[in-house]
Amino acid sequence: MTDFRHKLSSFVQPSGGAACRKWLKLAGLTVAILWTHQASAGVLAGDIISNMAVGEYKEEGSNVVQTSRSNLVQTTILPVYAATLVASRSQNAQISQTIQFPHVLTNTGNITDTYNLLTQNLTDDGFDLNNIKIYADANQDGVADNINNLSSITLAPGQSTGLIVEAQVPLTGTTGVVIGNSAKLSLVANSANNNTVSISNTDTVTLSNSAIVTVTKSFFAQNGTTYVRFDYANQSAMDSGQVILTDTLPASLSYQSGKETWRGTALNPASGSNDPSGIDYYLDTDGRTVKATLTSIPANATGNIQFAVNVVQTTAGAISNTVNVSYDHDNNTSTANISTTSNTASWNIAPIYRVVLNANATNINNSGSDDQVTAASITAGDEVSFTNYVWNTGNTDDRFNLTINSDNFPTPHQVEFYRADGVTPLLDSNGDGIPDTGNLPAGGMLPIVVKVRLPTTNEGATGTVYTVVPKAQSLGDSTQSDTVTNNTSIAATNISVDLTNGPETSNNGTGNGATTNNGNAWKTLTGESNGQVVFLLTVKHTGAATAYQFAADGDGNFSKLELPTGIASVRYFESTAADCSTLGNEIGQTRLLKNGESQAYCAVVKLKNNTATLTNVPIYFKVSSATYQDANTAGFDTLKNAININTLNAVGTVSFDPDLRGQITPGGTIVYTHTLYNYTKTALTGSYQLVTQHDQPGFTSTYYLDSNANGQFDSTDTLLDPTNISGSLFPATSQVRIFAKVQSPANAPVGMIDTASIQFKTSTGTVLDTATDITRVTTTQLRLYKFQAKDDDCNGQADSSYTTSGLTIGRNTNGTGQCVLYRVTVKNEGATAIGQFNFRDATPAATVMEFAPTCASCTSGSIVAPAKGSSGTLSGQLSSVAPNSSYNFEFGVRYVGQ
What we know:
- This protein is about 0% helix and about 50% strand.
- The protein is mostly beta strands.
- The strands form 15 sheets. Strands 29, 30, 32, 35, 36 and 37 form a six-stranded mixed beta sheet that branches. It has a five-stranded mixed beta sheet with strand order 8-15-14-10-12, with no helix packed on it.
- The chain starts with about 25 loop residues before the first strand and ends with a strand.
């Protein structure tokens, strides 16, 4: 067989986060992402671990499941500088001989490091060695790559390299250079970035005048076959006695018969006398141990043995192995043999990065029906979910960025990635700003959910198949990616609404689009200036559930809402009586109406104080769907009515308007905007007062002048003394805004209604006008917060206060991973109970469960979490969340990265 060997370069993935940007799919915009270099799959120094909690809950009396997300907490991986250097070696040598000692240096930290290399003679020996040099042996075949003397070397995390230390024994006559004496030297590797990392080996040379046998082991490939080779030499002037070479193959290799040779001559792997003279070669009964016994190695002779192996290991990484050597150095069977080992040879299986993204949970096929999902038809405003599967089909750990390759859904819309539960969002686990799978082992699979939220304003084209194509892209090799096709269609919404007058049952504007009664108003009411009229209106809905918003206009155009002459305001209230004789809560839209449902409401039209007599003043009312606003749907209807206004005071004096209603939380505030009208042709003089009477205890009102006349309550507005307001603030024929800030007591029960009567008086007590603010106490949304704290020694106690700020994490000086404690807090800031609430969370990247979740108020048996030392999702359930109360869900994780 031809002697064919070549050096194999160590394969090391560059570390560090890829220079990428977060993708966003919103409002029809896709931001492209570019990768500038590869990134390793493992967690490295500087990587950011992101984590977020999710809560699911139902409001009291509702069956609709809502979700709440906590704030994002982040932990940065600290750099760990660590290395190993193996191994100290001993060897016999002759006087003036050049010897070599093989070593292996490995970066076991999580950050690229440079190691300064040095050698030195030690003092506790017989003599010193000369011409000491260090050579690189990148593929660890025991042969120097070149003759460059190394002083330093840079290794990425996990990278190894061979180092060969060469030295020369001095000539005869040098002090201490006598048979039997030894010399020692040290090889030291010092981290250039952390002075606490300093590792060394000690090599020993003993002078001998007997046979000196050395063996070098290597791997090489030829014609698709992997070979193991032993190169042996007798570096002395004396023939050796018997030499026994033993090589036990690791489980990652298997023996391949039929390609064994000794110095080019075929060997027989079977035991017995079947080999050429001078060697007994065989494969032992375990099928893994190769033994070769040489009768002798002549003085200054060399030779080689090689055989073929099958590489069983499929995952990336190095296969390391050595040969045990035992030889008779003095041709005397009564003395002990010398035992030594070869160099540590390494066969590297380079990482292969591959990915499949498909729609099949049981196999990795990515074609045909396994490569697409078709969901049932949906309607505008709905959400559609697709379950896809990310398969790591490479031979090494990897993580995969998740982006949207393409989609054609109507704009605007939003696409997001979730874990298999469809609730927990997939986050960025390596700090490049792109959601990803997290670390996925070779052969592993991760189910993901792709959600598309459709617009409510565009229901798409009939018969069109809408597609979203997500992409999974390897971080180990950005050229490796795969996509899957997710399809659905958007059904026509088919809604219709009819706005009619009431309580009439005929001639009332029935029918969508029946805006006028042959150009005339459907209904006319009469009122007096500074008074009001009330229209009872009914909304009848057909089709998919929706709510309808209210509007009023003077010309029926509604592109710019302008009330007609003589009308000050229009407000809308629930109808608690068939004729609107009593009003309910103020509202701005209907409740959610299902198919065939109707809702009546009251439109209260306030007439201006200074209005002259007017007849047939037109006013148009409109209801429009809050969800379906596409022109293809009958999601709105308009009705024309009219008002006759009789004047009580053609000129008028002073008025304080309007009457307002609003909602407030217990202990909260609301700002009402009033206007004081001076209709006279002279400025007011003297002092005036705003006297307020609340009919509920604990409510207060504070008044501010709209100083900058911008109509917005802001910091520049002037606080008024309601007992002494200067008339100079109100010039002739002016309109001046006054803000009334109402605050409720913290213990105000939900449903309480406070009526504040505000009288504008002269200093003598004459009431010029009155406005009314009616405030109802309601609830607010649920809040979810997430906090974190360091626990370096993992004793379950926070080392500092819990925070939402970023932290750092790494390993302690004893090598143990540090811990992070998490606290998820749900808070009901309202005054009514929230129904069942589910905490949902997950162990972040590069961490495992250390402290099981605790939740004092969670339902017994509802807490689910991975076992200690494992990773995965967590959950716990509260039966309800009481008003003005908060509940904690706490757990801890341990860092297991480098």
